[in-house]
TrEMBL record:
UniProt KW Membrane keyword: yes
Pfam families, per database record: 3HCDH (PF00725), 3HCDH_N (PF02737)
Enzyme class: oxidoreductase
Domain 3-hydroxyacyl-CoA dehydrogenase C-terminal: 192-290
Keywords assigned by UniProt, alphabetized: Membrane, Oxidoreductase, Transmembrane, Transmembrane helix
Source organism: Negadavirga shengliensis
Domain 3-hydroxyacyl-CoA dehydrogenase NAD binding: 12-188
UniProt name for this protein: 3-hydroxyacyl-CoA dehydrogenase family protein
MF-aspect GO terms: (3S)-3-hydroxyacyl-CoA dehydrogenase (NAD+) activity
Coiled coil: none
Regions that span the bilayer: 12-32
The EC number(s) this enzyme carries: 1.1.1.35
Assigned protein family: Belongs to the 3-hydroxyacyl-CoA dehydrogenase family.
Domain of life: Bacteria
Length: 327
């Protein structure tokens, strides 16, 4: 059993210090781990430290730090040299979502670590059973999928591939409670894992309704926000069904399931968007239209919202363990 005090001695490596890698570094530092951050590209070295310091300041402003920022930074090593990973018990890969790039990075991690080191990938969509074939000890490889910003979200999905050993996955699952997460454990490697699959079912139906002229983008969004959005941080889908009454759901399933979309095609509206090079708020052309100022304001207000929802989810979490940062 892992104890609070152990966390201080469990070194964790993070390879890839882009958007997610940096915020994973911050999440692990806040939890008390010594962290080795490896920059696979020169640019990472230039940008990572300022980004990590900004995120630590943000975490401090949100009341997540128990020590001054310097105390966390003392436990961080940033380098381009993979040899710093040699004592890490876990190395979290967080590089671009391209199998070949991840494969090259694994070779460097493997060369720097022992056969017992657990290697985890933050991949959103590449099956773990495929990625684990790229390392010599696949039993110690798994998916550990974080949400951005990693230090302010309670989501964490741990996924076993076909060859992942149960004990290592269970160890990471236990560790994740010290990261203040509500981790889920996916015992079988399915494409998109659980979280993405749930959302893809919603995406398909929502495009179907819009393409059939049954609703609009704005109204579909309103329905999702103000119905599901009013309860889903408090309870899950199954708790919701228990709360509302199972018989009613059974009856509705029988009537509504046959009317839901089961297309396996990319929705036409999405195809048109991609052809028109619409990239949403990044180039202010998407399913909605934005000015540059509106796009920026939206990002700002989402960051503030993230803070509120993190605290709200914590306040109503039944399993929350309070972490302690010891000297
Ligand atoms: N951004 C998110 O919200 C999010 C959420 C969940 C999972 N992920 C996953 O996390 C991973 C990283 O995503 P990100 O958003 O941090 O991306 P990012 O673009 O911010 O960072 C990419 C990282 O990959 C490195 N990299 C790029 N080309 C490389 C190469 N040829 N060789 C070695 N390293 C290279 C970069 O140096 C950088 O560290 C991806 O697998 C992504 O699917 C991202």
């Amino acid at each position: 059993m892992i104890k609070n005090q152990d966390i201080l001695n469990i070194e964790i490596g993070v390879v890839g210090l882009g958007l997610m890698g940096s915020s994973i570094v911050v999440a692990l530092l806040i939890s008390g781990h010594p962290v080795k951050g490896i920059a696979p590209k020169k640019n990472d070295m230039k940008d990572a430290l300022p980004r990590i310091i900004d995120q630590l300041k943000h975490a401090e402003a949100c009341g997540l730090l128990e020590r001054p920022i310097e105390a966390y930074l003392e436990r961080l090593t940033l380098s381009e040299d993979y040899h710093h990973l040699k004592d890490c018990q876990l190395v979290q890969e967080c590089v671009t979502e391209v199998e070949e790039i991840k494969g090259e990075v694994y070779q460097k991690i493997v060369a720097a670590t022992g056969m017992n080191t657990i290697i985890s990938s933050n991949t959103s969509a590449i099956p773990i059973s495929i990625l684990q074939k790229l390392v010599p000890n696949p039993s110690r490889f798994m998916g550990v999928h974080w949400a951005e910003p990693a230090y302010m979200t309670r989501f964490l999905e741990i996924t076993k591939g076909e060859q992942t050993a149960e004990d290592g996955a269970r160890w990471v699952l236990e560790l994740a409670h010290f990261w203040d997460k509500e981790p889920t454990f996916l015992r079988k490697d399915i494409r998109g894992f659980v979280t993405n699959r749930l959302m893809y079912a919603v995406y398909r139906e929502i495009f179907h309704l819009i393409e059939n002229g049954e609703t609009t983008v704005e109204d579909a969004d309103k329905s999702f926000r103000y119905d599901a959005g009013s309860w889903m941080t408090f309870m899950g889908v199954f708790q919701r069904m228990d709360q509302l009454g199972l018989e009613d759901f059974a009856e509705a399933f029988g009537r509504i399931f046959p009317t839901l979309c089961n297309s396996d095609k990319v929705p036409l509206l999405m195809q048109r968007m991609v052809e028109a090079k619409a990239r949403g708020i990044q180039n202010q052309r998407g399913l909605y239209s934005y000015t540059a100022g509106e796009a920026q304001e939206w990002e700002r207000s989402f960051a503030a919202f993230n803070e509120d929802i993190y605290h709200l989810a914590s306040a109503y979490s039944p399993t929350r363990k309070k972490k302690q940062f010891h000297e």
